[in-house]
TrEMBL record, chains A, B:
Primary role: May play a role in vesicular transport during the biogenesis of melanosomes.
Places the protein is found: Endoplasmic reticulum; Golgi apparatus, cis-Golgi network
Database matches in InterPro entries: NO_sig/Golgi_transp_ligand-bd (IPR024096), TRAPP_component (IPR007194), TRAPPC6/Trs33 (IPR037992)
Any single GO CC term annotated in Swiss-Prot or TrEMBL for this entry: cis-Golgi network
Family: Belongs to the TRAPP small subunits family. BET3 subfamily.
Protein name as it appears in the record: Trafficking protein particle complex subunit 6A
Coiled-coil region(s): none
Length: 173, 173
């Protein structure tokens, strides 16, 4: 049991520590690579970017360690399914709840009960606090994808806690 | 498998991030509450202290969550045994290798193959780097002890990688 909570406790501490130097909360509810649209302060954008970078490197490392049934995935969609199932179970002990795609390189991964948001009371009043709890995981997805040979842009959004949507955009190469 | 490596990857990233702002390594090989004797710079002492604090809070939280066979431990030594066995297994998937005491409030917990030091090559050349990989765990022990009703001072030392000794001193109240 402690494995799961250990990761969650550590993640909480990491967010708190990075935020300690810039405690003013921004009004945005998006997290990810770019913080322009969130209205976050410069320090907060830096913290989001640091968290995203940490997530990226952990995702890269996990991507290398996770057992893969097939060494080569046939299609992009197979890779995304792998993340929704295997990566999510490895990190959060649950699968992603849904995966949708426009078949043009955009994927929306939805977790109806995202563990890193669960400690926050549901409702609207804490929505502003959500971005800092999503940046690491955006990086985690981007890093795992990178290890599997796919460059992407990953952002997250929350409309109502603890439901969370991760949007993965894979530019046409 | 990923649970273990997830914690270790995240710990590595956390240490790297906190050190990024003060990359100059100090010559010391002790970590813990006090950094005076290590020759660490002011920024490094701050980073050690931040890591120790994060470990303390995670240890406190884990101490509350770990199942205890007996709600009240009879003796101090029982609490220390609990940490060596249950806490260590929960965090590192292994037990501490030995526990010694002078029966006057000082305990030495030895891990012959401390997981957070394993990624470093063994030998003497990396000894200087060791303190930053021990501070979090010093805090973890102190936090778990605190939850169990014992105030302590925890320090760590490394004579040869990856063997690590944690010294717990419990002042007479």
């Amino acid at each position: 049991m402690a494995d799961t909570v250990l990761f969650e406790f550590l993640h909480t501490e990491m967010v708190a520590e990075l935020w300690a130097h810039d405690p003013d909360p921004g009004p945005g509810v998006s997290a990810g690579l770019r913080g322009e649209e969130t209205g976050a302060t410069k320090g907060q954008k830096m913290s989001l970017s640091v968290l995203e970078g940490m997530g990226f490197r952990v995702g890269q490392a996990l991507g290398e360690r996770l057992p893969r049934e097939t060494l080569a995935f046939r299609e992009e969609l197979d890779v995304l399914k792998f993340l929704c199932k295997d990566l999510w179970v490895a990190v959060f002990q649950k699968q992603m709840d849904s995966l949708r795609t426009n078949h043009q390189g955009t994927y929306v991964l939805q977790d109806n009960s995202f563990p890193l948001l669960l400690p926050m009371a549901s409702g609207l009043q804490y929505l502003e606090e959500a971005p800092k709890f999503l940046a690491f995981t955006c990086g985690l997805l981007r890093g795992a994808l990178y290890t599997l040979g796919i460059e992407s842009v990953v952002t997250a959004s929350v409309a109502a806690l603890p439901v969370c949507k991760f949007q993965v955009v894979i530019p046409k190469s």
